[in-house]
Write a structure and sequence with these properties.
about 300 residues; 13 helices
């Protein structure tokens, strides 16, 4: 494989989003509020690297177990057994997964909370079980991937902020914790929506795998209803925050309205009209953009 192929195989766009999210929390939110944190620049870089390693390992093991579906769903993007030997992909999975776990073990020891290593073990196991067994289960796979995104956001909170939280700085830290949880919930919900949309897009290949995804079990019409039912409360919550923030920060509500609320409302409208695989792919891309712009709103806080 070429270097470009490896970048695509490792999902470089998703990796960059993980890095961006974690660095925005650390160097925009935490520094803006002058919070006491447990990690210096070097160890925080290791935290991000460990998250990226576990994520890449998850992408690789998913591709290894998804060959049958990918031959149908995206033959032009098939890498395992076509551009890279399966055994080589397995070695890459072991390498990245081991690196992520070892870094997680070291960082847990560094901050004085060795029990936090369990988060890495749990994430790694979930990704493996998702790729091998749970992806074909009804809705479970969608929830697991969404939880992984939530964990990648909360990891910064757990490793960098919580170890320094005391009685004296609890009020300041609780404010940031609430903001982080809000972003994590936003990431979880947008990822869940996107995973369901991708299931509609990949129905043909998933059927060949014997998967019981939401659109396969309920049909496309009811799946659209489920997507709208999840999207409307999210859109209403975003609109509420825009209204609540108007008296505090003019730029932030305008930014959220233009880059999050309006695209989300368009998604709700467009998903009712979507019929072709290309249209569902566009909706999946739109959700990724909304998540990206939503995370960037942190700059205006």
């Amino acid at each position: 494989m070429t270097l470009k192929d490896y970048f695509i195989f490792f999902r470089w766009k998703n990796v960059l989003m993980i890095i961006l999210i974690q660095y925005l929390f650390k160097y925009v939110l935490f520094e803006k509020y002058d919070l006491m944190v447990s990690m210096d620049d070097f160890h925080f870089a290791l935290l991000t690297l460990s998250t990226v390693c576990i994520a890449i390992a998850g992408y690789i093991i998913n591709d290894i177990h998804d060959i049958k579906a990918d031959i149908i769903n995206k033959p032009d993007q098939l890498y395992v057994d076509r551009k890279i030997a399966r055994i080589s992909a397995q070695y890459l999975f072991i390498g990245f997964n081991s690196a992520g776990l070892l870094l997680g073990m070291y960082l847990s020891y560094y901050i004085g909370h060795t029990s936090y290593f369990f988060i890495y073990v749990l994430t790694s196991l979930l990704l493996y079980q998702y790729a091998k067994y749970l992806k074909v289960k009804f809705l479970i796979g969608n929830v697991i991937i969404s939880l992984i995104i939530l964990l990648s956001i909360l990891l910064v909170l757990v490793f960098d902020l919580m170890p320094t939280t005391t009685y004296y700085n609890l009020d300041d830290h609780m404010l940031i914790i609430r903001i982080l949880v809000l972003f994590a919930a936003f990431g979880f919900t947008l990822t869940l929506l996107r995973e369901i949309v991708k299931d509609v897009e990949d129905m043909e290949g998933d059927k060949a795998m014997g998967a019981r995804s939401l659109p396969i079990v309920l049909g496309i019409k009811k799946t659209k209803t489920a997507l709208i039912s999840i999207s409307i409360p999210v859109a209403m919550t975003v609109v509420y925050f825009i209204y609540a923030l108007l008296d505090h920060n003019l730029y932030l509500p305008i930014y959220i309205a233009v880059t999050v609320a309006l695209p989300l409302l368009y998604f709700i409208y467009a998903i009712t009209k979507a019929k072709s695989k290309k249209q569902f792919n566009q909706m999946s891309t739109l959700l990724k953009i909304i998540m990206f712009t939503g995370i960037l709103s942190m700059i205006f806080i």
